[in-house]
Design brief:
InterPro entries: PAP2/HPO, PAP2/HPO_sf. With 197 residues, the chain is an all-alpha fold. The chain is built from seven helices and no strands. It starts with a helix and ends with a helix.
Length: 197
């Protein structure tokens, strides 16, 4: 069964990866980097500040923790454990993969790009949707950001799907951990204030 899923994954990858153009190649390459998205991150920090004021630091810490979870699970645990070659490193696919730019590390399961982007989208959505419901568009950004990895030939769709799932779980976990800590500190501060009054 796993072998069949792997075959489907490879076939879908080849179909998606072969839809490329000289015009889109550099756009997709730079879209998969971090620095073009710095204005987006600054804008999100601004929204957090508008929604929470000084307490927004807790939300930012939650986002950072979600990225740490996502990155460590995918890069630190899954890639060395499963040792699934990236398509651009797969000898059997030589000549069939459109790889623009660097191939990256040897292993690709699961995608850290997908995990990190979905971790950001999830934790930001949980933290901001009460005031800015439209922030759900971050999931479209995460989908596009993840898709660039297939376009560039460095990840299979399965790598992306599992990475996205890891990111969702990481975002949920980090948000609830920091909400619990924040509420605990607030509760203890209130108790201390009552005792000293």
């Amino acid at each position: 069964m796993l072998e069949k899923i792997s075959e489907w994954d490879e076939a879908l990858f080849l179909w998606l990866n072969q839809h490329h153009s000289d015009f889109m190649d550099p756009i997709m390459y730079y879209s998969t980097r971090t620095f073009p998205w710095i204005p987006l991150y600054v804008f999100l920090i601004f929204l957090v500040w508008k929604a929470y004021g000084k307490q927004g630091g807790w939300v930012i810490l939650g986002v950072l923790l979600s990225i740490l979870f996502a990155d460590q699970i995918t890069s630190g645990l899954m890639k060395p454990f499963f040792e699934r070659l990236r398509p651009c490193h797969e000898v059997l696919l030589n000549g069939m993969v459109h790889n623009y730019g660097n191939c990256g590390g040897k292993y690709g399961f699961a995608s850290s790009h997908a995990a990190n982007s979905f971790a950001i989208a999830t934790s930001m959505y949980l933290g901001l949707s009460f005031k800015y419901p439209a922030v759900k568009w971050l999931f479209l950004w995460a989908i596009f950001f993840s898709y660039t990895r297939i376009y560039l030939g460095v990840h299979y769709p399965g790598d992306i799907l599992v990475g996205a799932f890891v990111g969702l779980i990481s975002g949920l976990a980090a948000f609830h951990i920091f909400r619990f800590i924040y509420n605990l500190i607030r509760m203890k501060s209130g108790i201390n204030k009552i005792k000293t009054d």
